[in-house]
Input
Amino acid sequence: MRVASPEVCDDKQFSDWIRDVDAASMVIIDDLGTESDQYRTGIPAQRLCHLLNRCEKKWLWVNTNVSPTAWSTKWDTRVEDRLLSSLVTTINAPSYRSEKV
Output
């Protein structure tokens, strides 16, 4: 299943998405950290925390360009704790997006 960033989903779409996550054995979160909270509602962080909770005991792969040392400034403590409780592998490689084709 492919879904847009959770901060742009309405409540029904997010509930449907979580139901699909519950049924999945593997979840991949791509580009974590690109979400925004333009109106400072706290909803993106709440949804991310909810998603990470639902992924407990599932095979979860997350990629982000946010360094672990910056997680506390990017996300609240609940999200940071869930991310820090995992195996973190840092890969220092150039971004393919910055290369001109």
Summary: The helical segments are 11-23, 43-54, 71-74, 77-84. The radius of gyration is 14 Å.
